[in-house]
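Give me the fold.
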Amino acid sequence: MPRWDDAAERGADMWVTEHETREETIDRYRRAGEHSDATITALTIDSPGYVPWWPRPEVKLFDILVHVLTETSRHAGHADILREQLDGATGTAAEYAHPQREAAFWDARRTTIERAAGAAAAKPDHTASADAHGSTRTTP
């Protein structure tokens, strides 16, 4: 698999262009998964690696696996939030679905959450900071 930083601009290939088909994108994802599976099968958890763009580039396979797990859960959470905005359903069980709730319910809920977020952000002891991926978090 080509390294991420082989692109002319680091990370330039981390999005799908309008010229790529769904099949190409899914095939690339499948190949990356197969490559990962082969790597995990062939190496021990303590096998050394090198990630030149990480602050501490000397790593072990364990470090990379934890990083991938963290990134996957973060982005899956983002996707879940977007999905919830479509129909208001939360969770995976049927009892969490609320198709009977109308737009007024969700508008009021969003207003409440936005008000709380605005109040928290306005406190002088909180600052917004961005991580290496541009995600913003508020910390005390």
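The beta strands are 48-50, 58-60, 127-130, 136-139.
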